[in-house]
Design a protein that fits this description.
The protein is of the alpha+beta class and 265 residues long. It contains five helices and 19 strands.
């Protein structure tokens, strides 16, 4: 094993967190802001890049951090190292309601492709890089652009999905059509492209976007029911204009405020 071999347990239902058990001198790396709690004798260090140690030169570290910047993430990650004598635990929490998925890269052929904001944490030694799309249509209309995250190595990685998580195992040649924002990740064998929805009524009135993703097997695909973009859109849509709360279920709006005794006038 090149990556540290860690034990873990996932707790909760809707707002999950993962508790990772570290032997002495074992470490885990995580995105900034995902830390929840830890035992004593765990040392926290901010590192440049992903800490995979594939290239310890200055240029190698700069390139590793630059790859993360292309995916929209910070140049830095946080490493948690057990410097004590016995086993210690550190926990990381979901950023919003959903599920935490444990990915054993040694069982995935050493590589897993995921959304650029899905990665939560991983055993130190796992490389967090970028996956470029070679297809122009996918890059322009796929929702995730030309770049997705690529997890490489032989250790445990943890990613987060919004809402309920669905796992689909595709046979060779089998195609699954998915909303572009609902893709969490897939194994390296899966072929990913985008397809035009088609039809004037579907395009203008469908409300589901102009394109959906096509995932062709063989391989395994993970789908989320609540992408963060969809959650954020619903929250923004519910914010009252002008900053005044009209109350849930209000039909009359401003007229209701006047009848109800609003004395602003």
């Amino acid at each position: 094993m090149n990556a540290h071999e860690i034990d873990y347990e996932i707790f909760g239902e809707e707002m999950q967190y993962v508790e990772i058990e570290l032997d002495p001198q074992e470490a885990v790396v995580a995105e900034a802001g995902s830390f929840m709690m830890m035992d004593t004798n765990i040392k926290m260090n901010t590192i440049f890049g992903d800490g995979s140690n594939q290239d310890n030169s200055v240029l190698g570290k700069i390139f590793s951090a630059g790859k993360r910047m292309l995916t929209g993430e910070s140049l830095f990650m946080t490493a948690f190292l057990n410097i004590g004598q016995g086993k210690k635990k550190v926990s990381f929490a979901s950023p919003y309601p959903g599920k935490i998925l444990a990915i054993d890269l040694s069982e995935m052929g050493g590589r897993f492709i995921c959304q650029k904001d899905a990665f939560l944490c991983a055993a130190q030694g796992v490389s967090v890089g970028i996956e470029f799309s070679k297809k122009l249509g996918r890059g322009l209309f796929g929702g995730e652009g030309f770049i997705m995250q690529k997890l490489e190595g032989d250790g445990m990685s943890f990613i987060h999905a919004g809402g309920t998580l669905a796992k689909k195992t595709l046979a060779p040649g089998e195609v699954l059509k998915v909303d572009t924002g609902c893709i969490v990740g897939f194994t390296k064998e899966v072929d990913y492209d985008i397809e035009f929805v088609g039809g004037i009524r579907n395009t203008v009135f469908g409300g589901e976007g102009l394109f959906f993703a096509t995932l062709r097997g063989p391989g395994t695909v993970y789908i989320q029911s609540l992408p963060f973009s969809r959650l954020a859109g619903r929250v923004l849509a519910s914010i009252p204009r002008g900053g005044k709360d009209k109350g849930e279920g209000s039909i009359l709006g401003t007229l209701g405020d006047i009848v109800g005794g609003d004395n602003r006038f």
